[in-house]
Each structure stands twice: as structure tokens, then as C-alpha cells.
Amino acid sequence: MPRPTPKPNTQPSPKVQYEDVSPMWLVKAIAATIVAALFCGYLTFCLLFYQGQWQLVLHPTRTSSAPASIAGIPYELIHFGLDESATPQLAGWWIPSAPGARYAHTTILFLPGSDGSLADSIPTLASLHNIGLNVFAFDYRGYGQSTPTRPSQLNMTSDADSALRYLTKSRAIPDSQIIPYGTGVGAALATELAADHTSVPGLVLDAPRADLLQIAQRDPRSRLIPVSLLFHERFPLAAPLSTLITPKLLISRTTSPDESFLHASDPKLTVELPSPSETLYSQTLTRFLDQYLPPAPVPQLVPTPTPTR
User: Fold this and answer.
1) Rg of the chain over all Cα atoms, to the nearest angstrom
2) 118: DSSP letter
3) At 207, is the secondary structure helix, strand, or coil?
4) pLDDT value at position 46?
5) Edge to edge, what strands does the sheet with 268-272 contain?
6) d(CA 232, CA 210)
7) How confident is the model at residue 7 (pLDDT cuts 50, 70, 90)?
8) Residues in CB range of 42: below 8 A, 6 or more apart
9) What is the mean pLDDT of the chain?
10) Using an 8 Å Cβ cutoff, are 101 and 158 in contact?
């Protein structure tokens, strides 16, 4: 049976109604998109600053080989600071004092500054050895021969702790015979070590470069950034130094002492050495050590057994 043929739809199709878009609405939408893009771009800029801010104040140099000697002084290359895989992360130099030296019972833990590498501190290390001290110096991670990584205040603080732990655990040197010596940003790290280990007999700060927020704020690259909110590589010195009661030798290399020196708590010895002088430097260190360092331990005499007849 044939199917009936459908009748064509004779009703008119409904007309589509289009809403007129206001030109002002389009302008507002475009403006909002531009503002959102600028805001996202600014946030990205702030994030890049946050991640790369260390480059404003830390300027590491990598070295491929250790020196043959420290200004003619023999030393031992040390690898320490094991990570989770038992791989040493830090490279340091152990410079023992000469046999029978004046301060052979004392060890300087040398914390270098933020620029270059440990090789730049060889003249200072040689001077400390010539005074009669043991010296242990090292490169932070990202510097010298230590493992390559991005340096930061957090990492460098951890490295300083590892160096002190190496001396006390691996070399069995008590805190009471270790003096942290900090130069540049190392002054802040040395001060923190002295605050955390109150049994250290003294602290030496040489030409510090710490409390770095103002340095970052003066950098042209940070003019559009809320630096005070984002900057964390500060290496604070003035505040901890104002309450630290450990005896301190504060060495200024200019005619105007560092601001943190002015408010440092007693006991302290503040000196100005604006011109390099090996004699004045040695006299200053010797004066401080003789005034505040405990005397060398007296070796106990073992009685000679009386021979039996």
C-alpha cells in the first residue's frame, strides 16, 4: 500500500531576533581584557624576580681545580656535606697550624662572602695560618668546586651548619675551640652560628655585607616590584648582632664602620683597617685571641710506672 505524501509546511518560519551590542560594552570588554593581560604579565614579572632575586646580591664563580697550595702552605682538600645519596655536596680546605703554633688548639671556621669563590680569600687564609691557627674554609653550594646549584640564603645557612658539624663530628673539635669568621654575607652566617652555638669562644666579622634589602631596592631592575614583600635573600646582621653576647672582633675596611657594628652588644672589639696591612691585621687578631680565648688545655701527665724488682 503506498504511503501518503506529506503535505508541505506552509507556515512561515519564525524570524530570528538579533540583539544589538552596544559599542560601549565592546570597549569595556576590550579594556578589561587588556587590564587582565597586564595584571597577569605583572604577576609573571614578580614571579621571575622572586625566583631570580639571588642574582642581585650573590655572584658565584665556579672553579674546576683546587690550588696547589695556599700561598705556599700545604692543605688538605675535603669533600663533605653528604646528601640523601651519600654524595658530598661541599668542597673545603683544611689548613692545619704549624706544629707547636701559638693557637694550635683553636680552629677558624672561615665563611666567605657572596662574590667569586674561595680562591679569592687565599691571602686572608694564609694570614690566619701564619698567626698560628688551624683554618677550615669551604665554598658554598654553587661556588668554587662545590656542587653546582642556585645559591640562596637558605642553602648557604645549611652549608655553614654542615661545615661546623664536620669539624665537631668528623674531626672531633669541640665548639669551645672553634671561632666562626665571616666576611661579606658570611658575616651574617657566622653570627647565626655563634647565636645557635653559645659555647663558641669568639666571633670575627670582617667587612660585612649583610641586611641586603636596601641593596636590592636600589637596583634599577627592581623599581616596579614590591621588593620589601618579595625579597628574602636578606642575610640579617644588625638585629642578631645587637643581642649576641659572644665576644666579637669587628673589623671595618673603611673609615666609617658598618651600621651593624655601632649597635653590636658587648663584649666587642671594633677596629678600622682601611688600608691593607699584614702587621696591623695580625696584631688585631692576636690581641683579640689573647683577650677572649681560653688558654690552651694543659696536657695531662701520665705517671711513669715504677719498675718492680
Assistant:
1) 32
2) G
3) strand
4) 67
5) 76-82, 88-95, 133-139, 103-111, 178-184, 203-208, 248-252, 268-272
6) 12
7) low
8) 224
9) 86
10) no
Tell which wins on pLDDT, 9 or 61: 61
Q: What is the DSSP letter of 299?
A: P
Q: Give me the pLDDT at residue 303, please.
A: 60
The Cα 62–Cα 209 span in angstroms is: 21
Cell of 102: 701559638
Quick one: pLDDT band at residue 15, thresholds 50, 70, 90?
low
**What number of CA atoms fall less than 13 Å from residue 19's CA on the CB side?**
3
Give the cell for residue 301: 701527665
With 70 as the cut, is the pLDDT of residue 6 above it?
Answer: no
* Interval 208-235: pLDDT, tens: 988 877 777 777 766 777 777 777 788 9
Is the distance from CB of 182 to CB of 111 less than 8 angstroms?
yes
Contacts of residue 113, Cβ cutoff 8 Å, sequence gap at least 6: 183, 184, 185, 186, 209
Closest CA to 106 of 206, 205, 245, 201: 201
Q: Which of 62, 131, 63 is nearest to 95 (CA)?
A: 131
